[in-house]
Amino acid sequence: MPRTPLEIATGRSFVPPTAGWISAPEIEKLTPAPGLVVLASCGGAAGRDDGGNGSLVAAFLDAGADTVIGTGWSVDDADAARLIKAFYAHGGATDPVRALGAAQRSSGLAPTAWAAFEAFVSRPMR
Question: Furthest-apart CA pair in the chain: how many Å?
Answer without folding.
Answer: 43
